[in-house]
Design a protein that fits this description.
Layout: H1 8-16, H2 23-34, H3 41-53, E1 62-66, E2 73-76, E3 80-84, H4 85-90, H5 94-109, H6 112-130, H7 137-144, H8 149-165, H9 171-183, H10 186-191, H11 198-205, H12 217-223
Parallel strand pairs: 1-3
Antiparallel strand pairs: 2-3
Helix pairs in contact: 1-6, 3-12, 5-8, 5-9, 6-7, 9-11
């Protein structure tokens, strides 16, 4: 059933729904993360440099940094991208950060985000019509709130091609995935992991060594400090 709600039906419905339909949700999500945004102005400018390095204008996106220590980033409706400070702290090179940003940009450009929310709406409606037990809420949330592996694979492919185009090394993100593979709990990795397997993702990025500087070491060091107040 989850596969069905990730396929052509979702794409068809998503194309028929105006973006205005989601305005209230976009505002709610933006206001929520804006309240947690936790980096200084100089750090914001460095993050904007990463977007510019990819050929993306930061003004086309709403970019916030969350205090969460989970090493992750997320794309939402309204061209909203959330970067956890855990990712800033765990990344060992600017190449890691820019590759993950490219992945999230892909989710937006490829309409994955819109399809995910359409899927959630349809999934919620069907699930509620079939089940009434509160015990189903956790599964319902997980199943209705993830990108499909096909979408994640497409986002990885987009990111890899963009990095090649912009002459950015793939080494950092390959090593990052290898580290995460060692750390992930077995059950999490194989039962609820919506991305392709780590070996597949590593293969996607491995062996491509084009490299031009992303940002300076000084700038990267400032980002790795994580959440700083606006006055810092």
């Amino acid at each position: 059933m989850v596969y069905f709600f990730s396929g052509p039906v979702i794409s068809f419905v998503a194309n028929k729904i105006s973006d205005d339909f989601f305005d209230s949700y976009i505002k709610e999500t933006e206001d929520y993360y804006k309240g947690f945004h936790c980096v200084s102005v100089p750090q914001e400018e460095i993050i904007h440099q990463l977007f510019l390095r990819l050929g993306e204008h930061p003004k086309d996106y709403k970019i916030f940094v969350s205090p969460s220590l989970e090493p992750n980033a997320f794309a939402y409706l309204g061209n909203l991208i959330i970067i956890n400070q855990g990712l800033l702290k765990k990344a060992k090179s600017p190449d890691v950060l820019i590759a993950i940003i490219a992945h999230e940009v892909a989710h937006i450009k490829k309409q994955h985000v819109k399809r995910k929310y359409v899927k959630r709406i349809l999934f919620d409606a069907l699930w509620d019509s079939l089940f009434s037990s509160s015990s189903s809420k956790v599964f319902k949330q997980v199943a209705g709130d993830v990108f499909s592996q096909a979408e994640e694979r497409e986002a990885d492919q987009f990111a890899s091609e963009l990095l090649i185009q912009k002459k950015i090394s793939h080494d950092g993100i390959s090593l990052f995935f290898k580290e995460l593979e060692k750390e992930e709990h077995f059950l999490f990795k194989y039962l609820v992991f919506s991305h392709p397997s780590y070996p597949e993702r590593i293969k996607m990025f491995q062996g491509k060594h084009l490299s031009q500087e992303v940002i300076s070491e000084e700038s990267f060091h400032l980002l790795k400090q994580g959440c700083l107040t606006k006055k810092d």
